[in-house]
Structure formats: structure tokens, C-alpha cells
Amino acid sequence: MHNVFISYARADVASAEAVAEALRAEGYVVWRDDELPAHRPYSDVIEERLRASRAVVVLWSPDAIKSQWVRAEADLARAMGTLVQGSLDGSTPPLPFNQIQCADLREWPARRDLAGWQKILASVSELVRSPDEPIEPDRASHGPSIAVAAPVREKPLLLVEPLSVSPATGTDGIEHGFREAIVSALGQHPTLSVTGDTAGTNNAATPSHDCDADYVLGGALQRSGKRMRLSFRLTDCRSRNQLWAERYDADQDNLFDDQDHIALAVGGAVEAVVKNAEIERASRVPVEQLAMHQTYLRALGAQRSQDRAGYEAALAMFEAVIVREPRHRHALSNAALCHYNLHLSGWWDDEEKTRAAGTDHALRSLQLSDSDAYSAGLCALVLGQFDHPIDVSISLIDRLIGLNPALAVLWHWSGMLRLLQGEADRAEENFGRCIALDPRTSIRPIVLAGMGGARMLQGKHDQAIAVLQESIRLRGQTPLSRVFLAACHGLMGETDKARAMRATSEAIAPVERFRFPFRDADHRAMFERGLRISTPDTSGADGSAGSPHAAETTVQGSGNL
Fold first, then answer.
1. 3-state class of 344 per DSSP?
2. 241 phi/psi in degrees, rounded to 5
3. Which of 204, 464, 476, 516 is positioned for an S-S bond with 216, CB 3.0–4.6 A?
């Protein structure tokens, strides 16, 4: 793997060659665009190499300042915390790069002891070295680092190794097909950078400081007649710990279907494990040392509590990221999701302000990209909740699923939108698909709540109650599960159970503030009828299901119901 990327203008190719050779002499593996392969789009290769590099050396000059490519490469490096800058002729870098120290290389390479070059070496050394490796004393004396923060990739880099095969197996290249399918499935996950380039990378079984990837997925294929067994293992290159292992069986007579099924299963499992590892790692970083991406990861972790305090803490961190990087579409979409959950659960102080803020964040994120599966999918969900045309949200989510069928959470968001639209059967199916793709998903309680709501509307009340109770068992602070369960008991005529469940929900958030804007009139009426029965009896006289006035207040208070 290359650990240093050189960005430069074409007119400065001689200087770029000199810098590359000097860094190679220092022992670094360097990449610049003279190594572009002939068979791949150069923009894809450049982005892949940029994201895989631990240090990106940008050589500024008047031509580089005018180059959109150099600016784009520098911008991505700045976002990842891997930017190292040098000025070939004393040119000041353009905004916003002039806010970051830039080494003066005007007398280099004639003077190899130039202070500016020594600063380049010091920064590259600090960025490329393993986090566990001490800084070399001779490099530490070269001066301050040019980077503004510790190197943190925007996305963790995952290397997928070739499957090992016994010489006696005779697979006819089947192992290559499985690997390509897995690389493709993993590439659908926007939280990962995935590569199959094993050059310069050690085997996952014995990862070392030379392993430039953050995680390595290795595996083996065994064969007996037409039966095949594939085993996989995921290793953290920094801790050398094995994080996940699984095995799958396939049949040659059903090769392509099994290949697709296994690739989707591996992709979903590995993405979830890597995300959990990255969030946990960010949680150990002192607050004052958090890089922007680590702040974003810590916010994702706060969201997982699925309670008011967690959403509000996450929202504050996402807003902090947005202040530093207004075009961070994932921070924008997740901030919108926080507003969505606060609104749905009744955890708001000013409802219109919450709706407006959620809508604004979602629209800003969509303006940046309507094809990023994660951010665009979140925005579709949020806008569907906030009364935008739901058919537009469903159309967007369907397109994203067509492009990214392995991303489990898309199926959940689709299920919620179908539930709002009145398609209970389709909603239940999509919730089930989400859990099948990622059985250990951190949002399982919310997925089960949606599934329970779908079954309630289908009239499957016993089944609805079972999954809603499981949702509450997993995450008791989720109002959605409790309100749906209260309504379900009400529809079954179980007045005492309905009122008891409503009472527990009121302890978390006022039920009259609950917002789930069913678009289907029959479904809305069914839900209101069940929830009305859960209303406490304020008459105290005839044992009825509560005063009509109290029931009416609950329905009207729901606003969008």
C-alpha cells in the first residue's frame, strides 16, 4: 500500500518527481499520478489512492492554485487530517488552506537541510507512523507538525485479501468470484473505503505496522465435490485483534445465488463490526484531542442510546462538525435524524422550530448529494416525517436500495416510509429484510417497533404485541414501541393493559406530543381508536374507556396523526 500521495500541477512535474524520490529515499512508499493504470477511470484511482494514503503532500505554485484537481485533492486531505503543504515558489495557498502552515521549499532541493524540507519530513513521519510507534528522536527535532490534527481517515480502510485455497481443491477460479462479489458488496457501504490491492500489505493473520489498511478481511475456501465452505475473519490491524469470524456454505449448482447471498451477509456483518470498532475507538479519545471525524463518530455513538439526552448530545456534536465543515453531508443528515427522533417522540420544546431545523438540515444534505445511500436515505426518511411529499421520499429510497441492496438500514427507512404511506404489508417485509441483513443492528429496537406497528395495522395484534414487547425489552426508552403497544392493546379490547402501557409511556414523554403522521385515513383512524381506549378514565363514573374530551385532546394534540 502507498503511504504518501503527491499532489501537484502538471507544470511542476520535475519538482514533484524530486519530492517523490527524496521521500522514497527516506523509506516511504510514494504514489503520484504517473502510475495511473490504463484500464481504470483516473478519477476513481486518484480518490482511492488519496483515501488510502496516510500523508498527502500538496505542492503549491501559481499553476497548482489554478488547478481544480490540486484543490480537490487538498480539500479531501484536509478533511481526513492527512494534509502536508509545501510552497515551491513562495506562493500562499488559497483559502481555506492558507489557515494551515505551509513549508517554504523555494531553495529545495539545492539545500537538503532546508528548514522547510525538514518540516515536510517531520509531518510525513508523524502521519505515516503507526499510532503505537514512538516518534523517532531525529525526526522529532525537525520542528512542529504541519498537520492540524492527528491523522484520522474520513473512512476506515478495509483490505479484502484473496481467499486462500488448498492446492488440491481445484476451484476453477471460484474463489475470485466470491472475493469480487464481497468487495462489491462492501463498496456499497458509505462508511467504508474498500480495496483489494494487497501490494505492500501483510497477511491479516499477522498484521504489523507495515499493514497500511485499518482492517483486513481474510478468508479461505474448502471444497468437497459440489459443496463449498467459506470461512472469513476480520482483523484490526492496529490492535492485531480478530473482531469477527464466520463461515458459510455454498453449492456449485446454485453458485451465483449463493455468491450473492454470502457477499451481502459478509458485507452487512463486517460494516457493522467496523463501525462499532470505530465508534468505540473514538470514545476513548480525550475531548480536547478529538479530530473532526472522531467528533462525528462520537455523535453516532451518542445517538445509539435512543433517548432524549442521547439525541440532544449527538445533535450538539453534529452541529459542531457542521460549523467546521458546512458541506459534511453525513453530519447534516444525522443532525436532521436527531430532529426527526426528537419530534417523533415528543421530546421538543418548540415543535415548529424542531420541524424547520430538521427539514433545513435534510435539504442541505440532499443538495450536496442525492446519491449517497446513507445521507440521502436519512433525508428521505426525515422529509417524509415532516410532511414533504411522501411519494418523493419513497421514490428516492427505492432508487437507493436498487443501487445499495446490502445496506440494511435502507430497508428500515423504507419500512418506516411505507408504514406512513399506508403500505403495511410492504413495510413489514422491509423491516424483516433489514434484520435479515444485519441481525445485530444497533437500531433493532426501532426496527421491531416499526414491524409491530405494521402488524397492528394488518390486524395481527398478537404478533404485533410480541415484537413490540421485544423492542421495549431491548430499549425501554423508545416511545414509539410503547405508544404502538398501548394502541394495540386498546384495539384488542384490553383496556387495563392499554392504560398501563400508556402510563409507562407518559413517564418518558407526553403521549399527546407523539408524532407519527399516518397518511392513510383508515390506518390513522385505527391507531386513534386504539390509543383512545388507552386514555385514562377521567369520569370515574361508568367505567368507560375515558372521557370523550380527553380522547379528542390526545388525537388533536398529535397534530399530524
1. helix
2. -90, 145
3. 204
* DSSP sequence for 130-198: -TTSPPPHHHHTT---SSSS----SS-EEEEPPPEE-TTT--TTHHHHHHHHHHHHHHT-TT-EEE---
Contact 518, 427 (CB under 8 A): no
Helices of type H across 459-520: 461-474, 479-491, 495-506
Q: Residues with Cβ < 8 Å from 347, sequence gap 6 or more? A: 308, 311, 312, 341, 509, 513
Pairing of strands 55-60, 83-87: parallel
Three-state SS annotation for 359-423: HHHHHHHHHHCCCCHHHHHHHHHHHHHCCCCHHHHHHHHHHHHHHCCCCHHHHHHHHHHHHHHCC
Q: What is the pLDDT of residue 198?
A: 54
Average pLDDT, the chain: 83
Task: Find out whether 425 and 396 touch, Cβ atoms under 8 Å.
Answer: no
What is the C-alpha R_g of the chain?
A: 27
Are 65 and 92 within 8 A, CB to CB? no
Decide if 135 contacts 129 (C-beta within 8 A). Answer: yes
Q: What pLDDT digit, counting tens, does each position of 159-193 carry? A: 999 999 877 666 578 888 899 999 988 887 767 88
DSSP state of 318: H
Nearest to 334 by CA among 319, 355, 354: 319
Q: Does residue 148 contact residue 175 with C-beta atoms inside 8 Å?
A: no
- Beta-sheet pairing, 242-251 with 227-236: antiparallel
Contacts of 451 (CB under 8 A, 6+ apart): 415, 427, 428, 431, 432, 467
Joined together, the cell numbers standing for residue 422 give 399506508
Residue 530 neighbours by CB distance under 10 Å: 23
> What's the one-letter identity of residue 339?
H
User: Which residues 6+ apart lie within 8 Å of 302 measured at CB?
Assistant: 310, 311, 313, 314, 317
Collapsed DSSP state (helix, strand, coil) of residue 489 = helix
Three cell numbers written together for 27: 523509506
Residue with cell 383496556: 495
CA–CA separation, 157 vs 335, rounded Å?
25
Beta bridge partner(s), residue 215 = 158, 236
Number of other CB atoms surrounding residue 331 within 10 Å: 28
pTM above 0.70, yes or no: no
Contact criterion met (CB below 8 Å) for 193 and 51: yes
Grouping H, G, I as helix, E, B as strand and the rest as coil, residue 4 is strand
